[in-house]
Sequence to fold (184 residues):
Amino acid sequence: PWRIILRMKIERLWLRFFLPKNAKLIVQTPSMQSTLLTGLNRYAESMPFIANTQSTEISLTSTPAYDFLYVASGEPHKNHKNLVKAWAELSQQKIFPHLALTLDSTRFPDLCQWIENQKAQHQLKISFLGELKSDQMPITYAASRALIYPSRYESFGLPLVEALAAGLPVLAANEPYVTDVVEP
Fold:
């Protein structure tokens, strides 16, 4: 949307003109390091700051409630519509995986309504979990078979790190931010 594009252009201009020349820049991933060098002609040190992720692994003895989990807000670059369209295509082949979304219907009412319409039209198995707190995430990952992550643009995909720590397989877009975190 034009508002997001405008905001990003203003942020880049602000960084270009008001960031002190001697400022030390630190980014989370090599892809963001490259973006900063290309976009602003500034070097940044790449220092991933990932906490000890091994301690969050949880396993369930019962069958997971969801086949796929997508942890994301409803901004357009998160690709919810393409994901739901893919679910609709699967339904045409009589394949109905259960998808859980962490969308908040009060923050993204139009998107949630569109998804509800698609659910009804194609008999899709999609659950809205709402916006979850960080302490709820380990249980949510444990209730899922895999993380799906079709977002086309991120600076850092924290759900990718969390899913890996929980022992989940990850199905994600082939984007640099993904390969910064997930081994293909």
Observations:
- The two ends are 31 Å apart (CA to CA).
